[in-house]
Design a protein that fits this description.
The protein is mainly alpha-helical and 167 residues long. 80% of the residues lie in helices and 0% in strands. The chain is elongated, with a radius of gyration of 20 Å.
Length: 167
């Protein structure tokens, strides 16, 4: 039973991370390229009344991923090869989330509250470009976590087979 739960959790993690990866690529190519194009005028995309509610997409996905990662860490602890990969995912996900809270969210708040009617600002353009470029690193981290999740599925199946052959 435990192994079936782990299997379902890994498949769930792969699925949700696939959504995150697709969302990150879409956001980088389509959304961020638009709001960062000509600040502060282009920041209007981030502002009410027609602001894109990106938090409605990201918050639920990140919460589900975090729950799945913690659950997998607990359930996979006896499986050393799998546990080590889950610990690597924990580290990478922290590398993703900590800068998000310390830099990306506060900076996006600045962009979404800056008056778009103001004249073009070179400083805001540089800040927006930096935000977009650093987001590429976040997307790569999500991609790494996604790939590692597939590796967990493979290792778990291997370890499960090895455990069955011992019994």
């Amino acid at each position: 039973m435990k192994q079936k739960v782990i299997h379902v959790m890994v498949i769930g993690l792969i699925s949700i991370l696939g959504l995150e990866l697709g969302g990150a690529i879409y956001e980088g190519v389509v959304v961020a390229s638009q709001w960062s194009a000509n600040p502060p005028e282009s920041f209007a995309i981030l502002q009410e009344p027609y602001a894109l509610p990106v938090e409605h997409f990201w918050i639920p996905l990140h919460m589900i991923v975090q729950i799945l990662i913690v659950g997998l860490l607990i359930l996979c602890w006896p499986y050393k090869k799998v546990r080590n990969l889950v610990l690597l995912i924990v580290g990478l996900y922290l590398l993703l989330r900590v800068p998000t809270f310390l830099y990306f969210i506060p900076e996006l708040h600045v962009f979404s509250t800056t008056e778009p009617a103001a004249p073009f600002s070179k400083e805001l353009k540089e800040r927006a470009d930096l935000w977009v470029n650093l987001s590429i690193i976040r997307t790569m981290i999500i991609g790494c976590v996604y790939a590692l999740s597939w590796l967990i599925l493979s290792r778990f199946k291997q370890q499960k087979i090895e455990l069955q052959s011992v019994e």
